[in-house]
Amino acid sequence: MPLQAPQADERTSVKRFRSRTLHWLLAFSGLLAPAPPLWAAEAAPPLMLAKVYHAGISLPDYWVSEKFDGVRGYWDGEKLLTRGGERIAAPAWFTAGWPSIPMDGELWAGRGQFSKAVSTVRQQTPDDEAWRTLRFMVFDLPAQGGPFSERLSALNRLLTDLSIPWVQLVAQSKVASHAALQERLRKTVKLGGEGLMLHRGASLYKAQRNDDLLKVKTHDDSEARVVAHIPGKGKHAGQMGALLVEMPAMGAKPAQRFKLGTGFSDEERQNPPALGALVTYRFRGLNDSGIPRFASFMRVREELRR
What we know:
Elements: H1 7-29, E1 49-52, E2 62-67, E3 71-75, E4 80-81, H2 92-95, E5 103-108, H3 114-121, H4 128-131, E6 135-140, H5 148-162, E7 167-169, H6 178-190, E8 195-200, E9 209-216, E10 220-231, E11 240-247, E12 256-260, H7 266-270, E13 278-283, E14 296-300
Parallel strand pairs: 1-9, 6-7
Antiparallel strand pairs: 2-8, 3-4, 3-5, 5-6, 8-9, 10-11, 10-13, 11-12, 13-14
């Protein structure tokens, strides 16, 4: 809820902001017990993770698909898990009849509906009506063995036999050139899509991040951990003005911190991401010191996305 104009309301908001900040500081320092987890913890599934598309890739070697802006879901043959290993409380009807073999995919509510997908998936008591808007977009069979092109054929046969409307095969095709890839990316984004994925046809399913799986987007994005809340000034007085975030160390390059001050809604400024949370931000290249240029907040990472 936005702050009201009267001074009394502004003073109340300042107190609330300071109280929340103190709570987070105590929790972060171990002096206050953190809130219980939203999901029951399981071992994190061994997922194949994506790197960013770069020059020098032999495009004819890859299958191309849309990058769905949803929640990474891993069906282990018995239950649905998030990327981080949290059990998803899906309705019994949603997974009824699913095979006893692992499936890797995305729980998707439609283009531009990431928040809706997250809200639905994170509920401990599933909302049937909300779940009926989700689809499980399956893109791999982790335990199938063989190269991706063969796994894709097996996945097509499996889902055809399964014939469940909300369990769908992610469409895969080939492009011949970088120009063709960029044109497809442009059309996908224009229609509201997030980007594209490239999957090397000869690749085995490996629980690691390498060039066998690549994401193609119109902007750079990355993640950083929140280390402090910087109080706002002027129109943002009484709420968070910026986040101080830390990028992880990369090889010999040490961790670096920078301020993330744009891209927030009024609600996010009044209820900023908790200390220690991972946030995703977009940016346009790096300056000479390695700090992202024109960084803008996108969302809190829910440990759910690929």
